[in-house]
């Protein structure tokens, strides 16, 4: 049953995780958010670095990672291990009672290996379902779930899943019960009309404006799947989505971009 309770989801990307000061400040602001909340983190840059240290060459096509078996091991170690546990430890130090999860834990996010694409992305999972009952049990107990970018297929296989996609899937699943607000945090102040000009933040993007922005080349690379995830989530019941700088969650008068259908 839908309640009027709010839940806040915050997603932090690889550039924030890479900058120790930015990460600490973001986690401090996150710790101060009142009410039920969830943190989702990426870490693609760290996984690429870790792979190289192990002699594995990261492979990307159009900004999307090819996850073969050795790369999947690196992704699991980096996302579900190193980064997830470091973030949970920092949140504990800030007095936030958090638990780190992959999608396999508690069967929280079930996915299926991507198929029927011209490119073989390898062990990449597309989300099938979210165990929203277990998730809301943690939220109701005041526990803060921290999700990494690893899911599972229910048959013993771990899969690599984009952290923006995980965020929107969690938001959609929870919107049956809660009023869901998502903040996607990254290193820029929002979606920019000119990626060379950090202050050219677009205040609101609708689906039709989005199509125009792609046509003029103003939106590209990782911003395209991020916005696709935003429109999907809004169309499936998420109430509010903003994209902004990682400082946006602690500031009341920051610039950011609001996404609307
Ligand atoms: N119009 C735009 N405004 C802001 N960033 C953009 C835009 N178009 C493309 N980008 C790129 O999208 C990236 C954010 O997507 P992604 O790499 O998936 O981020 P994250 O760090 O959140 O995972 C930015 O670092 C930027 O290089
Ligand atoms: C399938 C897929 O795209 N997985 C991503 C998961 C990490 C991620 O999303 O990290 P950022 O948020 O830092 O980009 C990857 O391995 O790069």
TrEMBL record:
Highest taxon of the lineage: Bacteria
Signal peptide: none
Top enzyme class: transferase
NCBIfam families, sorted: argB
Subcellular location: Cytoplasm
PANTHER family: N-ACETYLGLUTAMATE SYNTHASE (PTHR23342), N-ACETYLGLUTAMATE SYNTHASE, MITOCHONDRIAL (PTHR23342:SF0)
Family per similarity comment: Belongs to the acetylglutamate kinase family. ArgB subfamily.
Gene Ontology MF annotations: acetylglutamate kinase activity; ATP binding
Binding residue positions for substrate: 43-44, 65, 160
SUPFAM superfamilies per the UniProt record, alphabetical: Carbamate kinase-like (SSF53633)
Annotated protein name in UniProt: Acetylglutamate kinase
Catalyzed reaction equations: N-acetyl-L-glutamate + ATP = N-acetyl-L-glutamyl 5-phosphate + ADP
Gene that this polypeptide is encoded by: argB
Biological-process GO terms, alphabetical: L-arginine biosynthetic process via ornithine
TM region(s), chain numbering: none
Feature type site, description Transition state stabilizer: 11, 226
Function field: Catalyzes the ATP-dependent phosphorylation of N-acetyl-L-glutamate.
Keywords on record: Amino-acid biosynthesis, Arginine biosynthesis, ATP-binding, Cytoplasm, Kinase, Nucleotide-binding, Transferase
A UniProt-annotated Pfam family: AA_kinase
Pathway: Amino-acid biosynthesis; L-arginine biosynthesis; N(2)-acetyl-L-ornithine from L-glutamate: step 2/4
InterPro entries given in the database record: AceGlu_kinase-like_sf, AcgluKinase_fam, ArgB, Asp/Glu/Uridylate_kinase
């Amino acid at each position: 049953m839908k309640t009027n309770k709010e839940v806040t989801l915050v997603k932090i990307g690889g550039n924030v995780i890479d900058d120790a000061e930015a990460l600490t400040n973001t986690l401090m602001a996150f710790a101060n958010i009142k009410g039920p909340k969830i943190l989702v983190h990426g870490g693609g840059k760290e996984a690429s670095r870790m792979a190289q240290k192990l002699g594995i060459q990261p492979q990307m096509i159009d900004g999307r990672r090819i996850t073969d078996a050795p790369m999947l091991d690196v992704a699991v170690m980096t996302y579900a291990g190193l980064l997830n546990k470091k973030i949970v430890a920092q949140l504990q130090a800030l007095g936030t009672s958090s638990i780190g999860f992959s999608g396999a834990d508690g069967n929280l996010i079930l996915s299926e290996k991507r198929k029927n694409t011209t490119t073989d992305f390898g062990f990449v999972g597309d989300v099938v379902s979210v165990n929203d009952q277990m998730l809301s049990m943690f939220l109701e107990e005041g526990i803060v779930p921290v999700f990494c970018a690893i899911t599972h297929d229910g048959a013993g296989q771990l899969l690599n899943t984009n952290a923006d996609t995980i965020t929107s899937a969690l938001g959609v699943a929870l919107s049956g019960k809660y009023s869901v607000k998502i903040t996607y945090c990254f290193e820029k102040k929002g979606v920019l009309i000119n990626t060379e000009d950090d202050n050219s933040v677009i205040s609101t993007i609708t689906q039709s404006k989005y199509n125009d922005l792609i046509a003029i080349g103003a939106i590209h690379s990782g911003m395209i799947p991020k916005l696709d995830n935003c429109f999907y989530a809004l169309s499936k019941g998420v109430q509010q989505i903003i994209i902004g700088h990682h400082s946006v969650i602690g500031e009341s008068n920051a610039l950011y971009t609001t996404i609307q259908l």
